[in-house]
Specification:
The protein is mainly alpha-helical and about 110 residues long. It contains five helices and no strands. The protein has helices at about 1-15, 15-35, 40-75, 80-90, 105.
Length: about 110
């Protein structure tokens, strides 16, 4: 214990060494907070990760919807009504015995 107090008393007596120690401590403290791998960068990365996870969830739900639609188009699970509906939408056609009533209110 006396050696430790001797070291502190020598540091206190030599103000130059004390100032160097203070500057070194401030330097490392500054870069621990604002440096490339500091606390602020850590917090920013955590926010970016949470935003990326939200985007991932959004695209996962969209992917599941498309997988469901594609799954229904397979030959063993073919939904004829859905196939007919998609063909009519894509080709912009109707059947021979059907007619279309255009309503101008729907366009608005």
């Amino acid at each position: 214990m006396s050696k430790l107090t001797d070291i502190f008393s020598k540091i206190a007596r030599s103000s130059g060494l004390f100032m160097v120690l203070v500057i070194v401590c401030l330097y490392f403290t500054f870069y621990a907070v604002k440096g490339e791998r500091g606390l602020f960068r850590y917090w920013n990365l955590k926010q970016e990760i949470s935003q990326a996870k939200q985007i991932e969830k959004k695209y996962d739900t969209e992917k599941n919807v498309w997988e469901d639609k594609v799954g229904r188009m397979k030959s063993e699970h073919l939904d004829l009504d859905m196939l007919d509906q998609q063909a009519r939408l894509v080709l912009n056609m109707v059947g021979e015995k059907e007619f279309v009533i255009l309503d101008s209110d729907l366009d608005e």
